[in-house]
Amino acid sequence: MPSDTAASGKPPTTYRDLLRNGEFVGLYVSFTLTVAASTLSGIALGTLVNQQTNSPFLTAVSGCF
Questions:
Q1: Predicted structure pTM score
Q2: Alpha carbon distance 6, 10 (integer Å)
Q3: Rounded to whole angstroms, how far apart are CA atoms 51 and 59?
Q4: 31-63 pLDDT tens trace
Q5: Do 63 and 45 touch, CB atoms closer than 8 A?
Q6: Per-residue 3-state assignment (H helix, E strand, C coil) for the chain
Q7: C-alpha–C-alpha distance, residues 17 and 43, integer Å
């Protein structure tokens, strides 16, 4: 069972504290950019499939593959 932070006397870690660590900033930025690129490529693929086929079903399942 996790210990209570009030009992240990140490305040909880905040995002501001984590962003002061250079290793965490690099990890956070790379993960954020990966998610943004994946989302953008899914939207682009869906748009292309919709323009070519005009099928809502094929557009919906195109993001699954």
A1: 0.65
A2: 7
A3: 9
A4: 999 999 999 999 999 999 999 999 999 999 987
A5: yes
A6: CCCCHHHHCCCCCCHHHHHCCHHHHHHHHHHHHHHHHHHHHHHHHHHHHHHHHCCHHHHHHHCCC
A7: 34
